[in-house]
């Protein structure tokens, strides 16, 4: 389930926020960008729909991950979920920059405050803000991956190497905290994301060691039920 949700979220986000918009945007030419969007309006709307679906899949993945890793310890798993939901909120916020673009390009003249060139520049500016918000999302998602990697490493029901690889994937994503560094390291920083893929494949093919999961859940409940000294 986690692997399926991760795969769906990843593909929806990549196509909705990166590949489709990237095929329409000309970063140095607002007029060409506007023309591409208006000519391919259905494709642009499809990218928006994919972006919304990515947020929904991300919420579901965060919830399923919390249940799966809850036996490792309440505090660290809650912290992981917090970073995960923060990343989801940032992912959703980035979409807000794209929502008004069609209205700006198609109906902006009705307000009379801007001419066509200004409206096209505003649309391109919103798209660039969307990209910057996406970088912040990737940063927090990277922090979430590093914490999840630690949780996997501390668990007794998954191979520890998967936790190490997932943490390294998080390090790669978190380089977007400083975009010039991320661009310098690209594509090697994103190649580290293979750790996320390997964890998902392991869960899909082998799952978790159910007996060890139950044992760790029981031990965690007993530890958390003890009164504080």
Overall description:
The chain has helices at residues 2-24, 30-39, 41-69, 74-96, 101-107, 116-154, 160-174, 179-185, 188-191, 194-205, 210-225. The protein has eleven helices and no strands. The chain has 229 residues and is mostly helical. It has one domain. The model has no long low-confidence stretch (mean pLDDT 88). Helices cover 81% and strands 0% of the residues. The protein starts with a helix and ends with a helix.
Number of strands: 0
Number of helices: 11
Quote the average pLDDT.
88
Poorly predicted segments: none
Classification by helices and strands: mainly alpha
Question: How many structural domains are formed by the residues?
Answer: 1
Shape designation: elongated
Helices and strands, in order, run as HHHHHHHHHHH
| Terminal Cα span | 40 Å
Question: Can you give keywords for this protein?
Answer:
mainly alpha, 11 helices, single chain, 81% helix, 229 residues
């Amino acid at each position: 389930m986690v692997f399926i949700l991760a795969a769906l979220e990843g593909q929806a986000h990549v196509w909705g926020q990166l590949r489709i918009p990237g095929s329409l945007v000309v970063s140095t030419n607002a007029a060409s960008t506007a023309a591409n969007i208006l000519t391919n309006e259905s494709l642009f709307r499809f990218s928006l729909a994919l972006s919304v679906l990515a947020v929904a899949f991300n919420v579901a993945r965060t919830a399923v991950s919390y249940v799966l890793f809850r036996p490792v310890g309440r505090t660290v798993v809650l912290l992981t979920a917090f970073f995960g939901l923060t990343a989801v909120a940032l992912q959703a916020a980035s979409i807000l920059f794209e929502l008004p673009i069609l209205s700006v390009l198609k109906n902006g003249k009705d307000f009379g405050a801007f001419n066509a060139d200004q409206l096209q520049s505003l649309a391109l500016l919103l798209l660039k803000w969307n990209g910057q918000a996406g970088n912040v999302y990737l940063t927090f998602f990277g922090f979430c991956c590093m914490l999840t990697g630690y949780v996997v490493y501390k668990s007794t029901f998954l191979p520890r190497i998967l936790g190490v690889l997932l943490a390294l994937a998080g390090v790669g994503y978190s380089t977007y905290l400083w975009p010039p560094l991320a661009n310098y390291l690209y594509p090697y920083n994103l190649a580290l994301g293979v750790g996320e893929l390997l964890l998902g494949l392991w869960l899909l093919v082998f799952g978790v060691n159910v007996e060890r999961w139950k044992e760790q859940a029981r031990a965690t409940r007993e530890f958390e039920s003890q009164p504080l000294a």
